[in-house]
Design a protein that fits this description.
Elements: H1 8-30, E1 52-55, H2 66-76, E2 83-85, H3 91-101, E3 107-110, H4 123-143, E4 147-150, H5 161-182, E5 185-189, H6 199-208, E6 214-219, H7 220-224, H8 229-236, E7 240-245, H9 250-256, H10 273-283, E8 288-291, H11 298-312
Parallel strand pairs: 1-8, 2-3, 3-4, 4-5, 5-6, 6-7, 7-8
Helix pairs in contact: 1-6, 2-3, 4-5, 6-8, 8-10
Length: 314
């Protein structure tokens, strides 16, 4: 068996202290009360926010060239768009559209990480997954982005939890020199992959690398099914590199089935967005949020942008 992840004991001591400090800061921030017991940490005391709006390119369901789509997104009020890597798009066309419209490409999504998992029992498959990650890092650099979104592993009947942990970390460590070379970071996403199921473990997984190039791509909606996003945010703290803005309804899940929980518009599910935004304020997050919801035509994209604005202001 390969070497186990390092510093597990040190992590417990170090980061429980860090979490305790974050919790204390949270209590201090929210405990300014009036004489009638009302919370006054509201709009007038909230830090100003300059969070940027992005979305996934596949959500843009209109006719036209890449530049036509980029131009529409810019006009609607989006600051950026994230692409899959590989995506099938011509890189030169993407770059021309970016430069012509001023729409940023803040990052890319590794599009092979589900099929060629870094936890697969076959080392050849893991190698293909690693090379896919390397391709995404290089493409992201060319686009001017800063992160590659990565699903690091999948736990299933044939891959145990400890195997997923060890194998994925071993593969990612081999890519860290390329992160230094390209200036692009790897952002681990919380998804329903039966892996890294608590914020404490998610923090530990990142810290095991002892590298500033590994952090978290926090998907707000994915947590609501089994936890509370604001709690994760406070524990992950500065490890959060980017956000996916997504909604989830526990009621629809209960009434119609698990995956139906996502079929609700932003602000109409069970994400406590004011609590999420307050937690982001507390950790000093002021970066990108990328919508990852059902896309559509111009009217739908405008509605999503408007709802994101309302979330950011909550």
């Amino acid at each position: 068996m390969n070497q186990q992840p390092k510093n597990h004991g040190d992590w417990s001591r170090r980061h429980f202290l860090g979490v305790a400090g974050a919790t204390a800061a949270s209590v201090s921030f929210t405990s300014r009360l009036t004489g009638r017991g009302q919370d006054i940490s509201t709009t007038q005391q909230r830090p100003s926010r300059n969070m940027k709006k992005s979305l996934k390119y596949g959500m843009v369901q209109i006719d036209g060239s890449v530049e036509d789509k980029f131009r529409l997104l810019k006009e609607i009020g989006y600051d950026g768009v994230e692409l899959d890597s590989p995506s099938g798009l011509d890189e030169d066309e993407v770059l021309r559209a970016r430069d012509a419209t001023g729409l940023a490409i803040p990052g890319v999504v590794d599009s092979v990480h589900w099929q060629k998992t870094l936890s697969d029992p076959d080392p050849n498959v893991r190698g293909e997954g690693r090379r896919g990650l390397e391709t995404a890092l290089r493409q992201c650099q060319r686009y001017g982005g800063s992160t590659v979104l990565l699903v690091p592993a999948v736990v299933n009947k044939n891959v145990s939890y400890d195997q997923a942990y060890e194998r994925s970390q071993n593969e990612i460590r081999q890519v860290l020199p390329l992160c230094d070379e390209t200036g692009v970071k790897i952002a681990i996403e919380n998804v329903w992959n039966n892996f890294l199921l608590s914020p404490m473990e998610a923090a530990r997984y990142v810290d095991d690398f002892q590298s500033p190039n590994i952090g978290w791509y926090f998907d707000v909606g994915n947590i609501v099914n089994y936890g509370y996003p604001e709690q994760w945010i406070r524990i992950l703290g500065p490890r959060v590199f980017k956000l996916d803005i997504k909604e989830f309804s526990r009621q629809k899940r209960n009434d119609e089935g698990l995956w139906k929980g996502f079929q609700v518009k932003l602000l109409e599910g069970d994400c406590d967005w004011p609590a999420v935004m307050q937690a982001l304020d507390e950790i000093g997050y002021d970066g990108w949020g990328s919508a990852e919801v059902g896309g559509g035509d111009e009217a739908r994209l405008r509605d999503i942008a408007d709802r994101m604005d309302r979330i950011y202001a909550s």
